[in-house]
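Continuing from yesterday's entry. The apo prediction looked reasonable, so today I'm repeating it with manganese (II) ion included to see how the binding region is handled. Same sequence as before; SMILES copied from the compound registry.
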Amino acid sequence: MFKNSMAISPAPTSFAPLLFAGDWRLGLATAIELEFDGVEVSIRDPHDQMVKDLKAAIQTSDLVVSTVATGQSYYTDGLSPTSADPNIQAKLLDRMKAIIDFAALWKAPVIIGGVRGILEGDPIEQKAQASRVLESIRIYSEYAEASGVPLAIEPINRYETNFINTVSEALDLIGQIGSENLGVITDTFHMNIEEVSLTESLRMAGPWLKGVHLVDSNRKAAGQGHIDFHELATVLSEIGYQGFIIAEILPLPDSRTAAEQAIAFFRSL
Ligand SMILES: [Mn+2]
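Holo prediction written out below.
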């Protein structure tokens, strides 16, 4: 059986697949009550008082932080490493350092997913943006490595961003940077759209796999759509996966029910 986790957010967010967004106390209480092993925390700014309060509350619980998500810096604040503006790059670097510091207590992988942003303009501009993203991740990675925090690149489907959509593209980027603490977090919802084979892509991620968002085809809890999670669990066992399976799911029909569905399914694997 894999370690399990559910994704919560202290801040209300426009990024929908989070449970109890804006009410971390109820989110954490529910994760404890349902006996999850951990929580993924989606953080905008670690300097916010509610993030500090959440950190203290997790430390006094039996839960750990499985993973830390960073997309709100782009979705809420418009900070993206594609930017040519040094002020935005500096602001995002400060933000990422603070998030890595938050994660350090648990050595929880920090996810580089939606925060990447979107490439815009003509092909030459897009190439420059992509190389700024690569250099930024290299800098975040050097900082994270010093604290023993892994960074996990998350491939995201084409309807949400236009670069690094597949595991193979994430592994290419990791190869170009060549840092030991860089890995991949896969999300079965995105994989279901982009990958030729979910099982083969998981095998390809193999030793680089730092986390798995185990989500169904409709972004609901695993078991509520048509992905075959039993064959994925077999592959995860075969590759010796030691990380978390994480419910990063829509709060449908409501957060509580979705959390119950997720944990029941995780235990059935
Ligand atoms: Mn995800």
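Comparison notes:
- Residues 3-268 form a domain with the TIM Barrel fold (CATH 3.20.20.150).
- The chain has one domain: 3-268.
Will overlay with the apo model tomorrow.
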